[in-house]
Design goal:
elongated; single chain; alpha+beta; 5-stranded antiparallel β-sheet; 4-stranded mixed β-sheet; 26% helix
Length: 148
């Protein structure tokens, strides 16, 4: 039981930091802001300049697109909370080591913070979903037994 509680607590602590993930097959970027407040800005940078072009940046509710630094960087100003699809803004096949995610919290004068950038592994996502499904089933089964 302690292991289940510890496993449930750790992701909740780490989840309060904005992060981005990249699909190398199609160049699509998703950015998550789960801080509870809009970010002053959120930027994706490519050290080798392998971003596509500003026209591929998705329009996000409440955010202002800033693509003047293409092909090396693009930025969303006033980046709202939640998970957002930024579009197919990276050339497919670019290694994650070439990409950076940076953001500022309350003001454009705040220091830049390096965010987490990763590639979700399908097997990890499947394993997490199956674990959550099994845990939900177990809780429901125990709740039904308790009602009797």
């Amino acid at each position: 039981m302690a292991l289940v509680v510890a496993a449930a607590f750790v992701p909740a602590v780490a989840a309060a930091t904005p992060w981005a993930f990249y699909n190398p097959a199609n160049g699509n970027i998703h950015i998550m802001n789960d801080t509870g407040a809009p970010l002053a800005n959120a930027s994706i940078l490519s050290a080798s300049g392998r971003l596509t072009n500003a026209s591929f940046m998705a329009d996000l509710p409440g955010a202002t697109k800033e693509g003047s630094e293409f092909p090396f960087a693009y930025t969303y100003l006033k980046f709202s909370t939640g998970l957002h699809n930024a579009g197919k803004t990276v050339q497919p096949g670019v290694p994650t080591s070439d990409l950076r995610f940076e953001y500022r919290t309350a003001s454009l004068f705040d220091p830049l913070i390096q965010g987490f950038f990763g590639i979700p592994e399908p097997s990890s996502c499947t394993l997490a979903a199956l674990s959550a499904l099994a845990l939900t089933g177990t809780v429901r089964r125990c709740a039904r037994r308790h009602k009797r």
